[in-house]
């Protein structure tokens, strides 16, 4: 089984569907998954690829699609969730600190739960501190670490690494050099991890 | 079983995956499908939503994604296919004439086969006349009908109808007022046609 890298940014709407189900899917399917937070907005700006800005019809579709698919997965959801986020950078810096320390997945799930189920913008208070606390950490300590320059540099480096792999959106799965973009490509990513092809 | 409207534009790349498999899927699943050609580009321009222009990373991903998914569906494919098309308007006018006369599905499949398997741009010669002939029709007669003002007006009217339903991309499935965008939403559209929900 080839490892799967799950590249995501808190701030991405469709990533809600992946964040909330990936843990259970990985356990059920015996997957080797690494969560890799990055700053998708930096790549989108650089590539002139902002998905929903000034596109109200597409944005309205996105919310309805997420609502239907959340029901399909058995996930509660309140749409539209607050969007776009002011705190994308800090939300993902905290996720990166959490990945280094081992509580990043829990924090990410708690953040998305508050954002998509309770209407609390990710990366702003009270979501930020409450999600850190729910992951068993001290918010004051974690936010200080997240705001440190070294964490900003580390997130930028991760973002550049993702861009180098061909990541341009969130969620993205990278499996043995192949890029699969979108929650709706998780099945393809799993098939690739098992067989190195989709028509096996 | 709620009827499914399949809205598509010849010129859309991902529509290859749907055009080539929808007939077999519809027969196997007992679906009631109506094919509705329209001019997606007119809507995209109006909505400031051109998907791949000036986005080389996203475009390269799109071709690789189509290549992998074509293999998954057992479809031959040569990527990148010629893109974008100069003849999108005429290609879809012919499709509309064909739908009125009963050979439009066959023409659409033949057009995509030549475009995606043999590198012949859809809507240009020799693809245009060869696909009409392969659908059992006289190219001279059909092209004259397609170029008539009434056909242009009919395609514009179909496009406006689609836009009114919330269609903004191709392929799109409309099922009982719900919009499902993308070849990767065909399963959701079928589920909705059967049950009016995805979590049934």
UniProtKB/TrEMBL annotation, chains A, B:
Family classification: Belongs to the GST superfamily. NadH family.
CDD domains: DsbA_HCCA_Iso
Taxon lineage: Bacteria, Pseudomonadati, Pseudomonadota, Alphaproteobacteria, Rhodobacterales
Pfam families hit by this protein: DSBA (PF01323)
GO MF: 2-hydroxychromene-2-carboxylate isomerase activity; glutathione peroxidase activity; glutathione transferase activity
Its EC number(s): 5.99.1.4
Recorded catalytic activity of this chain's protein: 2-hydroxychromene-2-carboxylate = (3E)-4-(2-hydroxyphenyl)-2-oxobut-3-enoate
All residue ranges annotated as the DSBA-like thioredoxin domain in the record: 4-187
Tree of life domain: Bacteria
Enzyme class: isomerase
Keyword Isomerase included in the entry's annotation: yes
Record-given protein name: 2-hydroxychromene-2-carboxylate isomerase
Active-site positions on this chain: 12 (nucleophile)
Entry keywords, A to Z: Isomerase
């Amino acid at each position: 089984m080839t490892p799967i890298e799950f590249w995501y940014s808190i701030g991405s709407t469709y990533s809600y569907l992946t964040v909330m189900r990936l843990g259970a899917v990985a356990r059920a399917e015996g997957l080797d998954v690494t969560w890799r937070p990055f700053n998708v907005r930096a790549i989108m700006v650089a590539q002139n690829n902002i998905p929903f800005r000034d596109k109200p019809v597409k944005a309205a579709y996105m919310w309805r699609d997420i609502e239907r698919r959340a029901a399909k997965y058995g996930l509660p959801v309140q749409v539209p969730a607050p969007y776009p986020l002011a705190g994308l950078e800090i939300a993902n810096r905290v996720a990166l600190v959490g990945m280094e320390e081992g509580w990043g997945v829990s924090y990410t799930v708690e953040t998305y739960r508050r954002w998509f189920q309770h209407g609390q913008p990710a990366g702003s208070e009270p979501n930020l501190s409450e999600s850190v606390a729910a992951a068993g950490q001290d918010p004051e300590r974690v936010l200080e670490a997240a705001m440190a320059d070294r964490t900003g540099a580390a997130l930028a480096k991760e973002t550049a690494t993702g861009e180098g792999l061909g990541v341009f959106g969130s969620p993205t799965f990278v499996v043995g050099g192949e890029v699969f973009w979108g929650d709706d490509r998780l099945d393809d990513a799993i098939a690739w991890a098992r067989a190195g092809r989709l028509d096996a």
